[in-house]
Queue: 2 jobs
Job 1
Amino acid sequence: MSNNWERRWHPLLEQWVIIAANSAVRPWSGIVSDTATQARPAFDQHCYLCPGVTRANGTENPSYQGTYAIDNDFPSLALHAPLAEGDEQLDELRQRAPARGVCRVLCWSEKHNVTMAELSAEGMHNVVKLWQHEFTRLHTNSEVKQVLIFENKGVETGASNLHPHGQVYGYPFVSDNGKRMRQAQNSYAAKHPGQGLLADMLSHPDADELIVEKSAHWSVIVPFAARFSYETWVVPHRRVANLAELHDDELQDLAHTYQRQAKRYDALFKRPAPNITLIHNAPSDSDDPSVNQHWHFHIAMQPPLRDPEKLKYLAGAEAGTNNIINPLQPEHAASQLRECKI
């Protein structure tokens, strides 16, 4: 089949992705991303995430070393969100409810001028342990139905603060993607007893051309129906539903594997690469373990770049249909990533 005009089924989101490799070489006169990087200080007195700085709410950060977590000073969700009068009596066309939840900020390092790719092995391991700790403390909260840990890295992702950090949201509902992923994995298991969607993706006869790296406990793979040009998933070989179920040796290996992939992106784009990381834990909306018995935890890394200078924008055809157009053949992306010297 031609590399152009091909559609691929995204089994985890149950939607089509269009592969249009010819669009990558079309004449470009749009905005380009500046590949030059400005040196940043290790400490910035104007950064509200640096040690010892007074934040917007008047709280002074301690002189911390390594990882540090705080409540978001400008949260989108709050456990104290009030119930508006009449909320219980709305009709189906005007439903509303209080946005009760948790928003936390997770600092990867006290240093303002580093990224996860530049942390020491111990520092990266501490980041992964922070992920696990924050998930564990939130997913048992009765107000929280889904926990999403994520990082918006770089100005291209809309990050408002360049201090190395991510966030965790504890939602009062299961997101659309959470519902889609759970349904897709349950449906696949029903059709293929004893098998799993992501496990079969890794063991597929043609998976080698999409695999970027295999470590002791994890694989890095470009999805067959990748929605972003250099999207990769970091998938555990053992099926677990969430971070809390990972053993110490799996956490240690995750830190190493994730950081190596972050370094590949830097090598590919020849600069600290912008990236969105999404840590996909199973939803926390039920105490019945069978509800998430087929969920396979994984981490999606989605650089917003098509090449070192061109950003991937959501076009009208994509926004109007939710069917993404990828301008790069996933197998070609995997090959380029494997060749990166890190």
Job 2
Amino acid sequence: MDLLKKLTEVFGPSGREKNISEFIKSEVSAYADEVSTDALGNLIVRKKGTKSKIMLAAHMDEIGIVATFTDENGFIRFSAVGGLYNKDLLGRRVRFENGIVGVIGSEEDNKDRKIPKMYVDIGAKDKESAEKLVSTGDMAVFCGEFYENSDTVISKALDNRAGCYVLIEALKNVKSDNDLYFVFTSQEEVGLRGARTSAFKIAPDYALAVDVTDTGDTPEGIKMAVKSGKGAAIKVMDRSVLCDTFVRSVLVELAKKNNIDYQLEVMNDGGTDAGAISLSGSGVKTGGISIPTRYIHSPSELISKKDLNDCTDLLISFAEFDFGGNRID
């Protein structure tokens, strides 16, 4: 899990994916025929083939905050970058790209945990001192140490560095005649933006988005069929997409054929890159492989190593599948 640990530690909130893009590029270049970066910051890694054109996507960006202004006492006000659970923010530590760490505090009367009444305390004595360290527009990500035991990993940014890990491992091990595009997308957490532009550029015949999904197996938690440790989750739908039934059936049959544990996922809240890809151009036959994850959008997301391996094996099987040998176009 050393690669996954390194992926989670790289700074990369939405719109600031340069560091994580460069790290992934260093990992995959030796296995690729072409590597490029587009105007929105998507990293597009091609493994050439003569058969169907397949796009495999995982977003690089993580949630975070952006500094909006600093008050006279040196406390930094902020806005959200991606979906934050406001009630859980108080007392969390955040790290800016330059290494400065601060703690999220709140005005005393902020019973509803509203972000405009919160601030980041970096220990500055006044505005001038704070602004020497953090400027308006600087972004920060949450601190969350990587930990693993024999069965699970816990870390910040597993959403979606775990998906990036699956793509990288698949790229290193796949043997396929298909024309494969491994796309590490930008700005997913703020509106699936990178997936939309990269899919338009590639115009794939088929596509899969690899991302995390919630689980329904914690006490008094949400009600859904997905459970941690029970295998790759094959997406049926989320709020952004109704997955292509043919792509879904291929995934199910491949899982059965290759003895890969799987479960079906219906996610009632949230969306993934699959939604943007499916609507690109004149439409793309799109599906999703989801990694069951507890405590999403927290500094302590938890994933089963078995599920991670099952997702990787299923992605490789899909990339190697013969769709008939001809491009749709």
